[in-house]
């Protein structure tokens, strides 16, 4: 906290380096205003207490910098006190007419040989004699006494009773924002931006500023900002600045810095490039697709992936090559496969076919591959997919793959699909004592033949019907259910179908009662 004698609030704010154009009266409990100011710089609160104006910095120490003390104390006196609540650090500064008199930890002043002005302050503060071992002073007590001895009288009413004039401390970032908004971007803008990203003091602020302005859903909001202010003020401001940056081809110097900068700056540059990709995705302005194409070849795979996916989502076929090149880097990234499918580029056919693996644990990834190949389409793809059909899958994963493959082939509907499917139909209805991937394949195959709608499948399917359904295992029972459904779907009108359907329904009731009884009264074998 810094006090200056004889100045009004606005003059102190100007000397201190506050942004006067944004200054307004704000109460301490107005969190929206505090967060808004905090986006641009250290929040300042300015008030008046008697003949002294004071400025409180929200987590700052600018008032203790010698150059600032020189400016604010010109023609008057200034006192600046710092008390860090976390580590207990205290510091006291005093200046007269532009000259810093003291800048020290308060407790040390009692044990040194200070200047006459400081000796006079100590005397007025009640510390004229050298301390003895019985004296028990803490630094905060000494600092408060010195401030009062200098004439500072801060009352609770001066802070709590009325709003204080508030703004933020001007800094290179806020100057950058103001200049781009008022003057636009030029050849120096890129250098200024890179300097900000290279500064630990400003890099987080600039990234939070752009993220909050775009309200990026995948990036957690850094502030609890007022939604209306964000939409009507911050959002348009950020869009204008990013548009100006894109107008001076900011992507090129950022990519260059990505190759040469230190790790901290590379992180900041990488995050800003992600923001620019999101911006181009949201607004698709002139040159956006060329920028995305450039970034899809970036050495950073994370950037290249985001840019290529965004370019592909725009329907640009130039995204195919970078997306294919990123598959080895991101072997299970479903979004790559999904975008390639939507682009329907035939050059992706072979790479996608090579990724098909019936035994893969990544079931959803394999489904995306089948769907992408279906979108690309063509008889050649259907023929290649037929080669993956296997009537005897050896695992549940392989069985799931076969079921998805049958659905895909049904939608592609190649002309010779019926013959290929009938060749895989098991000539006997069992035995299937337990549910297995093999029995599951036959059920899916029968359902596919029914959906295919070709009446030539009726006789081969009808040969699998069992007239006496009593004593069938549960898998055999449901295989008969699928047969009846498929035959009805194909338009088979034989009388036996209704009889078998009725018998199966009666058996369904028995299976249900048997299952319920097992749950209520489990056998010892089931308990083990």
Automatic annotation (TrEMBL):
It comes from the Bacteria. InterPro entries: ARM-like (IPR011989), ARM-type_fold (IPR016024), DUF6461 (IPR045592). It holds the Pfam family DUF6461. This is HEAT repeat domain-containing protein.
